[in-house]
Amino acid sequence: TRHKKNGGKVLVLSRKQDEKIFMEVNGQERIELTVVRIDQNKVRLGIKASNNTTILRSELVERSTNVASA
Is-contact 32 22, C-beta < 8 A? Predict the structure, then answer.
């Protein structure tokens, strides 16, 4: 694990193409992340989750936070 500036921790994992990571949320929902493709400076991820799970890219979260605080 690595420490973030805000005091939280980040788990850093290495995965190869087609390898998966599974996450359980509150012991109920399982989210599956798959490394679909690795390019020179990009990683393409596939995310499988239930329909009621909201998945946002960081720039969209930051944009909505900035709009809400304006």
Answer: yes
